[in-house]
Automatic annotation (TrEMBL):
The keyword Cell membrane applies. It comes from Mesonia mobilis. Belongs to the binding-protein-dependent transport system permease family. This is ABC transmembrane type-1 domain-containing protein. The keyword Transport applies. It comes from the Bacteria. It is found in: Cell membrane. Residues 136-326 form the ABC transmembrane type-1 domain. It is a multi-pass membrane protein.
Length: 337
């Protein structure tokens, strides 16, 4: 779903950012007639693959309408309005506005569509379902990148500390304990502010704070494995330290690391959501589940709680899924506590 988000989402524009202010904050299942006005500006041509991964560059205008009527040369529409408020009447010259269409039937077929917003619209009138689908990419990306960074740093330092011991072990353990003593969220915020707000900065910041647990586990495992007979035999054969660590020790300590990685994946998603809620995560118009909650949490007391509950349930479901995967891997790999 994350890879094919723009193929599934009703809104194919970049970041699913097509706004319709007259229909903001509508409930799930809302339907409206939408008039698309083509633009004279030529949108940048993208390949099919680029459109599938990054969305289309939409240069036209979409207008929600209540009614429309064709005359010989014009299209008369009444813009969307609710209750006693009357919509604005607008007139468009057929030949000038729709140069590629030859008849009223063709215009109605191509440019006037009935749209259904399955999850409703946000406070800017954007399709909430499309924003949710594209937002999956942020959560999954932060998990993969943060876990990768934490594994590289944690496995390296943990293996060195556990294998060599002595002063090297004491120095690395001092670094681990100092890093461990700093609250994760505060450390992430500090790194993010130092690197600047943005997409990749959050990835690096979260990854740099999650290596400590990996390093401690790897150190403990390596201290036990290095006493095994096959490691002694490798030393007797004259193998170097690097080869012994990479070829003989690391493969035998991977089982608990897989379980920790699943838990870290879930933790990274929660941290990113918290940062986006605070406004220092993924920046607008890029959709993020945490920023969606931030934008709409005030709507909980305004009678439209679904705007904040839907992304909240999505975060909860994704985190729970990875925690269940971690528990299942622990049972399958028979990791001893």
């Amino acid at each position: 779903m994350a890879l094919g988000a723009y193929l599934i989402a009703p809104d194919h524009s970049e970041n699913a950012n097509q706004m319709h202010l007259p229909i903001h904050s509508k409930s799930p299942g809302f339907e409206v007639t939408m008039l698309s006005i083509p633009s004279n500006l030529q949108a940048e041509e993208k390949s099919w693959l680029a459109q599938a991964f990054f969305g289309k560059q939409f240069s036209g205008t979409e207008i929600p309408i209540n009614s429309f009527e064709f005359t010989e040369e014009e299209l008369k529409v009444k813009t969307y309005a609710e209750g006693e408020i009357e919509g604005l009447e607008k007139t468009y010259n057929l030949a000038e506005t729709f140069p590629e269409a030859s008849s009223a039937e063709e215009i109605e077929e191509q440019y006037i569509q009935q749209q259904t917003f399955l999850l409703g619209t946000d406070k800017y009138g954007r399709d909430l379902l499309s924003r949710m689908l594209v937002g999956i990419r942020i959560s999954l990306s932060i998990g993969f990148v943060a876990v990768f960074i934490s594994l590289v740093i944690g496995m390296s330092l943990g293996a060195i500390a556990g294998y060599f011991g002595g002063k090297i072990d004491a120095a690395i353990m001092w670094l681990i304990n100092v890093t461990w003593s700093i609250p994760t969220l505060l450390l992430v915020i500090a790194i993010t502010l130092a690197l600047g707000k943005g997409f990749w900065q959050v990835f690096i910041a979260v990854g740099l704070t999650m290596w400590v647990e990996v390093a401690r586990v790897v150190r403990g495992q390596v201290m036990g494995v290095k006493k095994m007979q096959y490691v002694t035999a490798a030393r007797a054969l004259g193998f170097g330290h690097t080869r012994i660590i990479l070829k003989h020790i690391i493969p035998n300590v991977l089982a608990p690391l897989i379980v920790i990685s699943a838990a870290n994946f879930a933790a990274a998603i929660l941290v990113e959501s918290g940062l986006s809620f605070l406004g220092i995560g993924a920046q607008p118009p890029m959709p993020s589940w945490g920023s969606m909650i931030k934008d709409h949490y005030s709507y909980i007391i305004l009678g439209k709680p679904y705007l904040a509950i839907i992304p909240g349930l999505a975060i909860m479901s994704l985190v729970m899924a990875f925690m269940l995967i971690g528990n299942a891997l622990r049972d399958a790999l028979d990791v001893k506590a």
